[in-house]
Specification:
4 helices
């Protein structure tokens, strides 16, 4: 069973980090718990905390990735719209731009 000491303190801090929604820190504390196991298996509670920590860290990164991908897709779509304009319009835009630089 779990011994008292640093392991219990790490579990307490992991729970505290979970309540504060600081999942990166929760992962760090749970990594310390797993390092302190020394051949013992994790308890059900410890496994659950570890799972929650990684699930939330990965979930946040996935959400960020989706946002970045969405922005990139919009930019590509806008670039496609810009290049698909009629050639006469593109020529006018180019001439006007050259005139403005003089």
């Amino acid at each position: 069973m779990a011994s008292s000491g640093p392991r219990e303190e790490y579990i307490y801090m992991a729970k505290f980090a979970e309540h504060a929604k600081r999942y990166e820190e929760m992962v760090e504390f749970m990594e310390k718990v797993t390092a302190s196991v020394e051949g013992e298996e994790l308890t059900v509670e410890e496994c659950s905390l570890l799972s929650v920590a990684y699930k939330n860290v990965i979930g946040a990164r996935r959400a960020s990735w989706r946002i970045i991908s969405s922005i990139e897709q919009r930019r590509r779509a806008e670039a496609t719209k810009t290049t698909s304009r009629p050639s006469a319009l593109l020529g006018f835009h180019g001439e006007r731009h050259d005139w403005m630089e003089i």
